[in-house]
Structures are given as structure tokens and as C-alpha cells.
Amino acid sequence: MNRIYLDHAATSPMHPEVVSTFSEALGTVYGNPSSIHGTGRAARKALDDARKLLADSIHADDTEIIFTSGGTEADNLAVFGTAAKKSGKHIITTVIEHHAVLHACEKLEREGYDITYLAVDENGQVQAEDVKNALRDDTILVSVMLGNNEVGTIQPVAEIGELLKGTGITFHTDAVQAYGVLPIDVEKLNVDLLSVSAHKLNGPKGVGFLYQRKGIAVSPLLYGGEQERKRRAGTENVPAISAFAKAAEISLSTMEEKTAAYEHYKTIFKSALNQQGIDYKENGSNQLPHILNLSIPGIEIESFLVNLDLAGISASSGSACTAGSIDPSHVLVAMYGEQAAEIRNSIRFSFGFGLAPEDIEQAAAKTAQISQRLALK
């Protein structure tokens, strides 16, 4: 059976050129970048080259990039690192953030911090005016994701950044889902901290970075050596970082082409459902191009995902699976309420490298067939 992978928002397959870069670096760039001999200097050059490319990709300076083990660590460093450096006890975030931000904020809440969790509208979008109204004299951090990983809604980050300018409040955005899909300029976004992970854009797992604007104070989470300008201890994973840079290079150079392809895939998918008379609603608006989240009345998501899997389609509810059951999506609950049908009948399809229009046509046809079959039960 030809399996069709439509869960690129969860993780993505490594691009063949990235695999090649990774494999070559594993065998040849084995030195410690902190060593002063030739082998170490070769590793340092590979590290510096990757750092420069990744910094340029968001219009930052290479000294503003801190390599991490991925998006979770980058988010944690932004939240905990800011809290440890500032004297205020108030943080503003949204109810639809990734759990790497939400759970970090919940831990700080247990330690005496006051967290404001901003609501979103039915499209999954927070309002900049709500951020403004929530600001207090003791606010130290605002964290709003750039693009939501479940429904794809793009948040008004630049607008929020503009209203925070000159306030002294640190502004963080989780750009894990948006990086490589949307053009990102940290100056235009007016952000101080920005999180990225490699495995969302056909790079290796276990590597990411946090952009830290010059002059913004963040306390390290790890203590040991003086790597990453004393901001993140531990010998850098040079092969993975080199592969990350290669993935970013490919992703950024093909962004317009990918965007057009993904929008076409959405059209194909929805047209196929329309032709079969499938009743559905698209969740979210102003979305990332690669995410299509659909509510299909009459289905239960757990059995729907199992049937899709048996049909060779890898998709997701956009929520975490725990002990064989699917927890309600905190994003859909925030959009529609705890009793809404959407939290029980919504599915996320997400597109990426390796797909072709015929794959989407086939996946949509099987989705329609399963929808009709399950709706009859």
C-alpha cells in the first residue's frame, strides 16, 4: 500500500540533500568547535557558516542565534530565561500556544507568577488590542505564536510587536510552525525572541535555535561550558546544525513554489469533498499555507483517524494522544467552547515535501469515502 503522509505539521521527512549533508558531516566534521587545533577549527567554521545562514534567514545578526535541542528548549529558554532575569511577575500569552510555552507558564504560575491567558476568536486569532489591555506595570514578557500548529491561523505578531516597542517588555514568538513557510524578518515583526525547530522543515530532529535580540537579557537553562556565548552550555551538535542550515536554505529558496503548491493542494482536497457532497467546515482563517483543518459533521475523530490510517493516510487530530485516547484539542476548545462538536470531529491535514497532486486527490477521495461510511453508522 502506498502510504500518503499528510502530517507534516507534526514532523517532516528529511530532504535527501539534507540527509547527504548530515551524513557527510557525521563522518568528517567530528571536532569540538571549542578546540583550537585544526580539527576543532574546521568544526567551528561549519558551525559559524550555519549560524550565519540561519541568522540571515530571519534578517538577524549571527551573534543573536542560540542553538538549542529544538523548539521546546527554545520556548523554555525564552520563558524561563526571561523570568529569571526580570523582577516583575506578570506574563501574557494566549490559550492556543504550543504546550512548550503553556506548560512553562503553568510552572511559573505555580511558583507565584501571574499569567494572563488571552482568548481567541472563532478563527483562532488573538487581538492586538487585547494584548494592549492586558499590559501592567509588572508585565515582563509577552509570548504569542506566529502561526498556530493545529488550525494554521497566523497571529498579528508585527502589530503586537509595534505596540510593545519602547515598553521594556520582552516579546517572544514561537515561529516553529511558520519558519520556512512564511517570510520572517525579526525587525518587521519587532520581536525580541523567536523560536525555531529544524524537523518541521525537512531537517533533523533534536536541533533548533532561539533568536535573542542584542540587549535582551535571558538567563541560561543549562550550566557547564561557555558555548553559545555562555548562553547554552554543551558541545554543539555540528552535523545536525549543518543539516539544519541546509534544510533552511532549501526551504527558503523554494518558499513561493511551496506556497503555491500547498494552496493548490487545499483546493484539490476541498473540491474532491464538494464533488462527493461531503459536509465540512474549515477551521481557522488567514492560515499557514500547509495546514488544512476540517470539521466534518457526523464523524468521531478517533475512529476516523484509525480508518484513515488503515487506508494508508497519515493525518492528525492536531492534539496529543495519551494512553490510546485522544485528548480534546485545547485550540479548538478555545475557538468553539468545551461542548462544541468541532472538538470531536476535526482533523488536520498538513502538506510538505514529497507530495504530488495525485496524492492529494487520492487522499481526498479516501477521506470522502470514509466520511460517508462512518456518517451512516
UniProtKB/TrEMBL annotation:
Domain Aminotransferase class V positions: 4-362
Xref: Gene3D superfamilies: 1.10.260.50, Aspartate Aminotransferase, domain 1, Type I PLP-dependent aspartate aminotransferase-like (Major domain)
PROSITE patterns linked: AA_TRANSFER_CLASS_5
Entry keywords, A to Z: Iron, Iron-sulfur, Metal-binding, Pyridoxal phosphate, Transferase
Catalysed transformations (reactions): (sulfur carrier)-H + L-cysteine = (sulfur carrier)-SH + L-alanine
Keyword Metal-binding: yes
Record-linked InterPro entries: Aminotrans_V_dom, Aminotrans_V_PyrdxlP_BS, Cysteine_dSase, PyrdxlP-dep_Trfase, PyrdxlP-dep_Trfase_major, PyrdxlP-dep_Trfase_small
EC number: 2.8.1.7
Co-factor(s): pyridoxal 5'-phosphate
Pfam family, one: Aminotran_5
Family: Belongs to the class-V pyridoxal-phosphate-dependent aminotransferase family. NifS/IscS subfamily.
Name under which the protein is recorded: cysteine desulfurase
Native species: Planococcus notacanthi
